[in-house]
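Amino Acid Chain and Its Fold in Token Form
===========================================
Structure side: the spatial fold of the chain, written down as a series of whole-number tokens.
Position: the record begins directly beneath this header, with no further notes in between.
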Amino acid sequence: MIRLLLPRYRLCYDLKIQRNDKMNIVSRQWTRIFKTDIMHNQFCILGRALAYKSAFSLDKLYPTSNLKLFTPTFVPDDPNAKFDGYIPIKELDITYSRSSGAGGQHVNRTNSKVDLRLHVESATWLAESIRNKLLEQYKNKLSKEGYLIIKSELTRSQQLNLADALQKLREIIWEVAKPPSEIPPETLEMKRKQHLRAARQRLFEKRRRSEIKQSRGAPTMDF
């Protein structure tokens, strides 16, 4: 009985050894592939790091910037800002007309030019200080009715021209909404000295011209 079981036991033992050998071979192959992949990635990264870069490359022009394209840019809101960039289109008077210049039949048949008008006094969505500054700084560009007119025919697209006109208006409002910069005392003192120097020079020139005119007169003879 024992003699009959020994061959079967040896056969099972041999099969188990062969199976373990196959598993070891497969695991070794996977380990070799994994190591090769890691070494390849490290070599590629090292190659990119040691590659030649021009003096005008982004890494050298902006060394402290994150050059990843998928990184979103976040602009924090300023709680003290009087204008956040939002312009309600319903509060504007927008008209379209034919653009000038070259462009073929498309220009002659489409109204791509944008004429944007903002009535400053009735623009309640703007702060009163901004409206007053607009009326003061752009008084020569306002119409008789008090409209600030902005035109755009930058492209042959009506929507792009509208976006360009809105951006122009947005930049004007941002420029007006900026708080006045504080002048340092050194600059004020320098301007005061320049003003005094100019006043002295003006009095000197005036006195010199007066002496020249007096010297041109007829000589007087005393008897």
Remarks:
- Residues 1-6, 69-76 have pLDDT under 50 and may be disordered.
